[in-house]
Amino acid sequence: MKISTVYRVTLVAACALAALSPSQAFAAQSPGCPKKNIAYLNAQDNQEDAGAKVLAAQQALNKARNDRDRLDRIVDTGDQLKDVFYSVRPYVTDYTDDDVKRIEPLGGAADKVVMASDDSPRALGAAAAKEADLAQKAVDGLSDQAKKSNPELQPTAQELIKRLREDAEAARKMDSFPAIDARQAELDTAVKEKTDADNAVRPARDAYRDCLAKANG
Fold it and tell me: Which range of residues forms the domain containing residue 37?
């Protein structure tokens, strides 16, 4: 509970006491201008609540952007993974027939990842996971001849496979594509409300101060 809320409850109680027994209220030292004070406290509460809404809206927008970046990265990683294996294809003699059989499906798998990127996050994640599985089989089955011709292929592929699996898992947990425009609109609204709340605090404070000044002669 906000401090101002607790204080406001005290003020309301004091006002109720004043209505029943002015002398008792005076004895309880009820603050002057209680209505103006409560209005001021309400304005402060509204300002605090508006600030919390801005923070929540900004966090939601950041998450949406991060999720969108992650989905975009899946397509990019899928292409990189395919290219890592295909980069040594001009040197046909560096691959055995078994190497080629394992690597060939990666091209189609990468294409399916691209196509799934327009379907849904879950479809994209599923397609990416399948490509990662095919790539892992290709890595595990690489001939010594292929490893020798490109010593960086295996560690590079493993890093890309790891990244693709992590992003694919995240995508499969998303119900829909991130609504960045909607989140931005919510943030814009929250910022406007925060500005309005900020602007309302000073008039309420001035009104309360003026009331106290008059009450104190």
Answer: 32-215
